Amino acid sequence: MTDQQHGDDEEQTRRHDLPDASNLDHFSPEPEPQPAWTRADLDPTPAPPTTPERWYEPAPAFATAPTPATTSVAPGERRSGRTGTGTVLAAAILSAMLASGGTVLALNATGALDRPAPAPTAATGTTIASGQPVTIDESSATIDVAAKVSPAVVRITTTGSVDTNLGVIPETGVGSGVIYDSNGWILTNRHVVEGSQEMRVELNDGRIFTGTVYGIDTLTDLAIVKIDASGLPSASLGDSDALKVGQLVVAIGSPLGTYSNSVTSGIVSAKGRSITTNGNQSLNNLIQTDAAINPGNSGGPLLDAAGSVVGINTAIAADSNGIGFAIPIDIARPIMEQAVAGKKLARPYMGVSYRTIDRQLAEQENLSVNDGALVGGTGANSPAIQPGTPAAQAGLKEGDIIVRINDQAIDGEHPLDATLSQYAPGDTIAVGVLRDGATVTLSLTLATRPADL
Hints:
By secondary structure, the protein is an alpha+beta fold.
């Protein structure tokens, strides 16, 4: 593949012409009828919870009357209800007194009665009374994240038209976005806003603004939207590279284009995933999560337990349950900074075709390393080195293994395309290359990634 190649065709959320559900992955949101947008629709009052008929707890122990004792008599012996019972009872009491007295004397002789009573041991658990709500750390974190970030999450409604054999048909799409700068800068998905003729951005507090597309990312399914406002609530950015598999994450968005600021939670299921959407776009280095992501969540934030944005929700796997994908915020950060600085969105470009090295490729090609990027070998239609590109000018050759960019090693956690995305066109980088068993360092000045890649 070539520097994280992607097609230009993007999936725009539509109210008409539902996509084929047989595709492996699809963008959200899918086309839905335009909902009646009323606050009452968004916050239906749930029915009050019912109380179980009985809490299944241990039943109290009840005292029972002692069973009268019976005695047996020898054959021919006459039973006496009074004398016999009184004698037996007296004998039992006397026997108990003598036994207890002997026990006391024995314990006193050993000094056991002089020992202080042990202090009660502090319980390590928490005793919960019947019906008392249980608060756990994960629930508290999700509540805090929702309260902190929801004001910065917006609903984006786009309108446009499409030419068909039946004529021009109007269409509407709904997605989500997150305000990352208080002066009206919003990060969302490319497929949410691409091709829109009008855009309405609704804030959590009910305010509505007209939005414009500032720029489209040429590398990923991202876009920057601008609204004319200031002093807006904004979300803080996290570190997606530091995410760990199994870590708690929270997704906020507008599923189905109706239920604005819906909150779901889950974990990071995996990192570094690659998918192809039903728009035939390849997306790499994605975060996989089981936090529920539905049509309409596209463009909304994926957050860590501190409420920092670690990803932008972009796609869900078709015919799946609990398989969603988000673009890491570290990949989005450069274009976000470019927009705030008033620069045109641009991605860096080397001009090489390469394959990411793993153990299988290393064994297949008899390579000396299990990590890095092998230049070439992607097909006859993709030359290893594009003529006139920074890679050609720097002296890269087919068969080279790129093992380092500046101080960052290229490996499974830091693939070449994701590492390059941290730089801007015009930056000069040191490329560590393994060639014929020796490591050489080449100086390369990045160019601007063409829009048609």
